[in-house]
Design a protein that fits this description.
This protein is mostly beta strands. The protein has a single domain, classed as Beta Barrel (Lipocalin). It has 1 helix and 11 strands, in the order αβββββββββββ. The protein has an 11-stranded antiparallel sheet with strand order 5-7-8-9-10-11-1-2-3-4-6, with no helix packed on it. The chain is globular, with a radius of gyration of 19 Å. It starts with a helix and ends with a strand.
Length: about 160
Protein backbone atom coordinates (compact mmCIF):
# COMPACT_ATOMS: atom_id res chain seq x y z
CA UNK A 1 0.00 0.00 0.00
CA UNK A 2 2.78 2.47 0.95
CA UNK A 3 4.68 1.60 -2.23
CA UNK A 4 1.62 2.44 -4.37
CA UNK A 5 1.19 5.76 -2.46
CA UNK A 6 4.84 6.76 -3.05
CA UNK A 7 4.62 5.84 -6.76
CA UNK A 8 1.44 7.92 -7.02
CA UNK A 9 3.19 10.91 -5.43
CA UNK A 10 6.13 10.57 -7.81
CA UNK A 11 3.81 10.53 -10.83
CA UNK A 12 1.85 13.56 -9.59
CA UNK A 13 4.99 15.49 -8.73
CA UNK A 14 6.47 14.81 -12.17
CA UNK A 15 3.37 16.36 -13.76
CA UNK A 16 3.73 19.38 -11.46
CA UNK A 17 7.40 19.84 -12.32
CA UNK A 18 6.65 19.42 -16.01
CA UNK A 19 4.25 22.34 -15.94
CA UNK A 20 6.88 24.47 -14.19
CA UNK A 21 9.35 23.72 -16.97
CA UNK A 22 6.85 24.22 -19.81
CA UNK A 23 7.78 26.80 -22.42
CA UNK A 24 6.13 30.20 -22.35
CA UNK A 25 3.00 30.17 -24.56
CA UNK A 26 4.46 33.00 -26.67
CA UNK A 27 7.69 31.18 -27.61
CA UNK A 28 8.18 29.88 -31.12
CA UNK A 29 8.07 31.16 -34.68
CA UNK A 30 4.98 33.08 -35.82
CA UNK A 31 4.09 34.12 -39.37
CA UNK A 32 1.78 37.04 -40.14
CA UNK A 33 -1.58 36.05 -41.62
CA UNK A 34 -2.10 39.09 -43.87
CA UNK A 35 -5.61 37.99 -44.93
CA UNK A 36 -6.87 38.00 -41.33
CA UNK A 37 -5.07 41.22 -40.33
CA UNK A 38 -6.22 44.82 -40.68
CA UNK A 39 -3.72 47.66 -40.86
CA UNK A 40 -3.86 51.37 -40.16
CA UNK A 41 -3.31 53.45 -43.29
CA UNK A 42 0.41 53.74 -43.97
CA UNK A 43 1.26 50.77 -41.72
CA UNK A 44 0.33 47.97 -44.14
CA UNK A 45 2.66 44.98 -43.85
CA UNK A 46 3.33 42.60 -46.75
CA UNK A 47 5.09 39.89 -44.73
CA UNK A 48 6.39 39.43 -41.20
CA UNK A 49 7.85 36.66 -39.08
CA UNK A 50 8.24 36.94 -35.32
CA UNK A 51 10.50 34.58 -33.39
CA UNK A 52 10.25 34.48 -29.61
CA UNK A 53 12.72 32.56 -27.46
CA UNK A 54 13.18 32.30 -23.70
CA UNK A 55 16.53 33.48 -22.38
CA UNK A 56 16.72 33.49 -18.61
CA UNK A 57 13.95 35.74 -17.27
CA UNK A 58 13.42 37.38 -20.67
CA UNK A 59 11.61 36.69 -23.90
CA UNK A 60 13.92 37.56 -26.80
CA UNK A 61 11.85 38.83 -29.73
CA UNK A 62 13.07 39.10 -33.33
CA UNK A 63 10.81 40.64 -35.98
CA UNK A 64 11.67 40.44 -39.69
CA UNK A 65 9.53 41.42 -42.64
CA UNK A 66 8.55 44.15 -45.06
CA UNK A 67 5.93 46.85 -45.36
CA UNK A 68 3.81 46.97 -48.52
CA UNK A 69 5.91 50.02 -49.49
CA UNK A 70 8.96 47.72 -49.62
CA UNK A 71 10.63 49.17 -46.53
CA UNK A 72 12.24 46.40 -44.46
CA UNK A 73 11.17 45.61 -40.90
CA UNK A 74 13.95 44.50 -38.55
CA UNK A 75 13.41 44.77 -34.80
CA UNK A 76 14.98 42.94 -31.85
CA UNK A 77 14.20 43.39 -28.19
CA UNK A 78 14.19 41.70 -24.82
CA UNK A 79 11.05 41.69 -22.71
CA UNK A 80 10.91 40.50 -19.12
CA UNK A 81 8.69 37.38 -19.23
CA UNK A 82 6.75 38.61 -16.18
CA UNK A 83 6.41 42.09 -17.68
CA UNK A 84 8.42 45.28 -17.55
CA UNK A 85 10.25 47.68 -19.89
CA UNK A 86 11.36 46.40 -23.27
CA UNK A 87 15.03 46.73 -24.13
CA UNK A 88 15.52 47.31 -27.87
CA UNK A 89 18.76 46.14 -29.47
CA UNK A 90 17.65 46.79 -33.06
CA UNK A 91 14.88 49.02 -34.37
CA UNK A 92 12.54 51.00 -32.14
CA UNK A 93 8.88 51.03 -31.15
CA UNK A 94 6.46 52.45 -33.74
CA UNK A 95 6.56 55.77 -31.88
CA UNK A 96 10.24 56.05 -32.83
CA UNK A 97 13.48 56.87 -31.10
CA UNK A 98 13.03 58.13 -27.56
CA UNK A 99 9.89 56.10 -26.99
CA UNK A 100 9.63 53.59 -24.17
CA UNK A 101 7.46 50.50 -24.13
CA UNK A 102 6.42 48.63 -20.99
CA UNK A 103 4.74 45.23 -21.09
CA UNK A 104 2.41 43.85 -18.42
CA UNK A 105 1.79 40.13 -18.12
CA UNK A 106 -1.97 39.69 -17.61
CA UNK A 107 -1.91 35.87 -17.60
CA UNK A 108 -0.09 33.00 -19.31
CA UNK A 109 -1.64 33.85 -22.71
CA UNK A 110 -2.09 37.64 -22.51
CA UNK A 111 0.27 40.61 -22.61
CA UNK A 112 -0.65 44.30 -22.54
CA UNK A 113 1.78 47.04 -23.44
CA UNK A 114 1.97 50.82 -23.34
CA UNK A 115 4.29 53.02 -25.36
CA UNK A 116 5.13 56.49 -24.10
CA UNK A 117 7.01 59.43 -25.57
CA UNK A 118 8.27 62.13 -23.21
CA UNK A 119 6.03 60.80 -20.44
CA UNK A 120 2.85 60.87 -22.59
CA UNK A 121 1.18 57.59 -23.60
CA UNK A 122 1.11 57.33 -27.39
CA UNK A 123 0.11 53.71 -27.93
CA UNK A 124 -1.20 50.46 -26.46
CA UNK A 125 -1.09 46.82 -27.46
CA UNK A 126 -3.19 43.86 -26.34
CA UNK A 127 -1.71 40.51 -27.36
CA UNK A 128 -3.37 37.12 -26.86
CA UNK A 129 -2.27 33.57 -27.64
CA UNK A 130 -5.32 31.47 -28.54
CA UNK A 131 -6.41 28.68 -26.19
CA UNK A 132 -5.13 26.06 -28.66
CA UNK A 133 -1.76 27.88 -28.92
CA UNK A 134 -1.93 28.14 -32.72
CA UNK A 135 -2.50 31.87 -33.19
CA UNK A 136 -1.56 35.21 -31.72
CA UNK A 137 -3.89 38.18 -32.14
CA UNK A 138 -2.51 41.62 -31.36
CA UNK A 139 -4.57 44.81 -31.28
CA UNK A 140 -2.51 48.01 -31.51
CA UNK A 141 -3.87 51.49 -30.89
CA UNK A 142 -1.58 54.45 -31.47
CA UNK A 143 -1.41 57.83 -33.14
CA UNK A 144 0.17 58.94 -36.38
CA UNK A 145 2.54 61.87 -36.74
CA UNK A 146 -0.36 64.36 -36.82
CA UNK A 147 -1.94 62.92 -33.65
CA UNK A 148 -4.75 61.03 -35.44
CA UNK A 149 -5.80 57.77 -33.73
CA UNK A 150 -4.98 54.56 -35.59
CA UNK A 151 -5.87 50.92 -34.96
CA UNK A 152 -4.20 47.78 -36.30
CA UNK A 153 -5.16 44.16 -35.65
CA UNK A 154 -2.57 41.57 -36.66
CA UNK A 155 -2.98 37.80 -36.59
CA UNK A 156 -0.01 35.42 -36.53
CA UNK A 157 -0.02 31.65 -37.08
CA UNK A 158 2.41 29.38 -35.25
CA UNK A 159 4.99 27.86 -37.59
Amino acid sequence: MMKRFVCGLLVLSSFGCGSLWAADSFTGAWKLNVAKSTFAKGREVKEETVTIAEQGDNLMVTVKGAYVSGKAISIKYAMPAKGGPLSYTEGTPLAGAGATTVAKRVDANTLDGTTSMNGKQVGTTHTVVSADGKTITQTRSDTDESGKAMKTVVVFNRQ
